[in-house]
Design goal:
By secondary structure, the chain is of the alpha+beta class. The chain folds into 2 domains: about 50 residues, OB fold (Dihydrolipoamide Acetyltransferase, E2P), CATH 2.40.50; about 45 residues, no CATH class. Helices cover about 35% and strands about 30% of the residues. It is built from 2 helices and 5 strands. A 5-stranded antiparallel β-sheet has the order 3-2-1-4-5, with no helix packed on it. Helix 1 packs antiparallel against helix 2. The longest helix is centred in the middle third of the chain and has 25 residues. It starts with 12 loop residues before the first strand and ends in a 5-residue tail after the last strand.
Length: about 120
């Protein structure tokens, strides 16, 4: 009978398998809508004449409001990083980190209290 495999040296240790950037869109507010609408209305008012000028102003307000809202969402967007770790026991665990961890694929790490720590080589 073959001997049982030795238990993992570290139950919370593994090798980084992948890193994915996850972008979360920001929330738009009335500020982006109103600011974009005002600028769009001013630009739209520069085109057309008579009733056409009014229509272009309205289109400018609507387009500007939509664009202003989108610009505000992009400006408030955040990015976090999901780091996949292949644990010593074969499980795959994912840890979210707020900043870019850099080129760590293949690095030995330890997961403790939901945080990722690089393992220091033992001498």
């Amino acid at each position: 009978m073959a001997p049982a495999p030795a238990p993992p040296v570290c139950a919370d240790c593994g090798i980084v398998a992948a890193v994915r950037a996850i972008k979360t869109p920001g929330q738009g507010t009335a500020i982006g809508v109103l600011g974009g609408g005002a600028v769009g209305g001013l630009v739209g008012n520069q085109f057309g004449s008579g009733n056409g000028k009014g229509a272009m102003t309205i289109l400018g307000v609507i387009g500007g409001a939509l664009a202003g809202n989108q610009v505000e969402k992009e400006a408030k967007a955040t990015t976090h990083y999901d780091v996949d770790v292949r644990m010593d026991n074969g499980q795959l665990r994912t840890v979210s980190v707020p900043g870019n961890p850099g080129p760590i694929i293949g690095t030995r790490v330890r997961i403790q209290n939901g945080q990722l720590y690089r393992e220091t080589p033992q001498s």
